[in-house]
Design a protein that fits this description.
The chain is an all-beta fold. It contains no helices and eleven strands. Strands 2, 4, 5, 6, 9, 10 and 11 form a seven-stranded mixed sheet that branches. A hairpin with a 4-residue loop joins strand 7 and strand 8. The N and C termini lie far apart (40 Å).
């Protein structure tokens, strides 16, 4: 059974850090690009970061230098370390396993986790 189970998230203050984790039970995990998306209230979902099967990474401009995506192919996990959090980072964050051969077309989704940054 395919599952992406997320952990982490919660309520923090401006400038704090959080680490989101995603444990994936998907076929060919190590060959897939893994994504982190977020959706803030009233806004469209956006791709925050991805990490390819070779370890290449991508970040949206607003999180560059603050967020770090990493993966462990021995554990089938992907993490998002978020530092120096800002109120604008408040959103539901979801991990996703991309279709083979794509970078940000999700085939499978995690359950989503709320991140709230209070000022």
């Amino acid at each position: 059974q395919v599952r992406l189970v997320q952990s982490g998230g919660g309520l923090v203050q401006v400038g704090d850090s959080l680490r989101l984790s995603c444990a994936a039970s998907v076929r060919a995990f190590s060959s897939r690009t893994m994504d982190w998306f977020r959706q803030a209230p009233g806004k469209q979902r956006e791709l925050v970061a991805y990490i390819s099967s070779t370890g290449s990474t991508y970040y949206i401009d607003s999180v560059k230098g603050r967020f770090t995506i990493s993966r462990d192919n021995t554990k089938n996990t992907v993490d998002l370390q978020m530092n120096n959090l800002e109120p604008e980072d408040t959103a539901v964050y979801s991990c996703a396993a991309a279709f083979a051969g794509t970078t940000s077309t999700p085939e499978y989704w995690g359950q989503g986790t709320q991140v709230t940054v209070s000022s």
